[in-house]
Design a protein that fits this description.
Radius of gyration: 18 Å
Oligomer: single chain
Shape: globular
Number of strands: 4
Helix content: 55-70%
Strand content: 5-15%
Order of helices and strands: EEHHEEHHHHH
Length: 203
């Protein structure tokens, strides 16, 4: 499903709709909604920063595992502006985490899943993995100081250094919980992102 808003092309994967339908059948729709909401908050943070810096994205692709914002002009941005755009996503999640957690403490337990989802998405995205915000920030900082070749090697090394213990922890959680494979699924996503990564300025 594709449409256009202003100068930005937007596409939505039908797999996302299918996944929502499966979650309804399995009784996990509430968790799915909170996760999608946290990811939307995250990407909205990126979009808000891009618009504030007068650099609207070329396209937005909403798929089963992510919302990909394509911004080929970001390579022309200053290091400061690029870092602002990168960290605006996690910052939006952390702000929502604090707000929802305060609402949980003061009002109702219904806000707890929202706070946990935003905290998880924010923390996950600051990991120094090449396909995530933390990895992109590390790449830009290393490139500024040591050049692009060193930056690529440093981010790849950091990505694998994070991936191996995270995978081991995912397996441990899976065996101890007898069926909780969420962390292992995150590791699979990271591996897939590392393989498919094209370094064209996606956020």
């Amino acid at each position: 499903m594709k449409f256009r808003i202003g100068s930005t092309d937007i596409s939505v994967s039908y797999l996302l709709v299918c996944a929502a339908a499966i979650c309804v059948v399995m009784g996990a729709f509430e968790g799915f909604v909170w996760c999608c909401a946290a990811v939307t908050v995250h990407e909205s943070g990126h979009l808000a920063a891009m618009c504030a810096l007068k650099n609207p994205p070329e396209s937005i692709c909403v798929s089963l595992f992510e919302i990909k914002i394509k911004d080929r002009k970001r390579q022309k941005q200053s290091l400061k502006n690029s870092l602002i755009i990168i960290f605006s996503g996690p910052a939006a999640n952390f702000v929502c985490f604090i707000l929802f957690y305060l609402l949980y403490l003061e009002c109702n337990e219904i806000f707890l899943p929202a706070s946990i989802a935003n905290l998880s998405v924010g923390l996950f995205n600051i990991l120094p993995v090449i396909s995530l915000d933390g990895g992109q920030a590390l790449f830009l900082l290393c490139r500024e100081k040591f050049g692009e070749g060193f930056a690529q090697r440093a981010v790849c090394a950091a990505s694998f250094a994070i991936l191996f213990p995270l995978t081991a922890l995912g397996l441990l959680v899976l065996f101890n919980s007898r069926g909780n494979f969420s962390l292992l699924l995150v590791c699979v996503y990271i591996v897939f992102s590392l393989i498919m990564r094209n370094n064209e300025g996606d956020i």
